[in-house]
């Protein structure tokens, strides 16, 4: 009863008391935990969780399930307002978008926003995961995207949008009149899958490899036998990897792991009673040769799926490097299956990937990346065409930023008769006619245009003549250091270097959505899903502090071997080792001390082995 009275009524009588502040901190931490860890609102009704919280803080009364939901909704509105305010300061953005269907057969449209912040770092904001009950036509998708852009007031800031090559997505971007960059990960996936399908020998190996992997992953006896053989061969215990039809690199990883564990797999199959046919030495020889050709494609897929590094500018240079690698390996490859695979890869790359050098967003990003410039292009004709596009963009920017006042026409040597006429005739201002106004305006604009074009050409050529920086260096750091040297190109770099190489950021959103819209939470309203996902991805984006409220400040000290109470902040050091029981007692002691508002010193080091972790 005392706990109930204190939690429910004491706060109202104490104003901004420490207990009220503590209640607010714990409520905020609870909301953040639900959002960050994709926990259901009903966690506050779980007996085990309630008992755990009661042990940590007997005075804290958790809010109800409905109250937690309302707090999440309020948090969503607060954070969205902050995010919109922050986005108003952004110069240019690039978007990615994709569609997804949940286990409840509810469709969603995700749109992520990428930009360079004021510290010259790449940043990502989830604009929304909108329920999409309409048919997936270009008209409906474009209407939803336009609504999101208007809501966030970024219609004039979108430099490009990255999507897959679906006909509806391509038509949608055309309706929005935006620069379109095709998802490089999807394109690579398509190229490799079609190449493997068109290579009969490799496709046969893939089919039999899948049967072997399926056998070891579905039979507990086979799984244990493989583990036993691996231990006997003094090899690390490694599970076989099953491929996923939608990701080609899962096929690569499946064949790679099977090749690495070929001895253990062959020995285990020889012992077990099964009708699964083991792969022969010729199969493994062909697998090794094909893996050698596919390895750089796997590297490219992984590297260009990053969100926190500049990736859009890598698409064209990466395509060039893949072409060079394949042509070089084709001269050295003697295995017929690998040779056929290489031919197919080159063929499908020519059809699907080489069009990247015609996509404006990617070409400008490549030129503005000081690691690549024109060297990144495979076709130098396309490179020079892209230089002209960059110069044109720079010219437009100069015309927008340079404000040249119009010339005032004067006569160098006015005649005496003109002066006399001026002196003797009074012309009211309303009757003065500027006969030369139109011609003077056109001449001024022509001079301004000529100057802007010349200045833009000089700035672009100076930049291109500078030696490229090392590939391991950060291009955004380069532009931050050279923003006063190439003033206008710096702005263009911030505009185009935020273009992602793929739409993987949107796909990652849906991976998280799959955790939220699960069998345990299959009754979630789509609008609620949108709010939870927004907070999950954006909660810490516009804050300089962690998602969870911090404890009192920590100062390192070696003053005490275990722990003691002082009138000081929490002090941590590495002077001693404690076991699990002592560690749990210490955690309970810390929470009790925090609740009583005491400050104390703690000096310890957790031994992971002794603690049983």
Outline the structure in words:
With 613 residues, the chain is of the alpha/beta class. 56% of the residues lie in helices and 8% in strands. Strands 3-2-1-4-5 form a 5-stranded mixed sheet, with helices on both faces. A two-stranded parallel sheet has the order 6-8. A two-stranded antiparallel sheet has the order 7-10. The relative contact order is 0.11. Mean pLDDT is 80; it is low at 1-15, 404-427, 544-583 and 595-613. Helix 8 (200-218) packs across helix 9. Strand 4 (158-163), helix 6 (167-176) and strand 5 form a beta-alpha-beta unit. It has helices at residues 2-14, 18-36, 47-56, 65-87, 138-152, 167-176, 184-197, 200-218, 220-232, 248-260, 262-271, 281-303, 315-332, 336-352, 360-367, 380-401, 416-424, 437-465, 475-481, 487-496, 504-516, 526-538, 580-595, and strands at residues 93-101, 107-116, 122-131, 158-163, 180-182, 554-556, 563-564, 570-572, 577-578, 601-602, 605-606. It contains 23 helices and 11 strands.
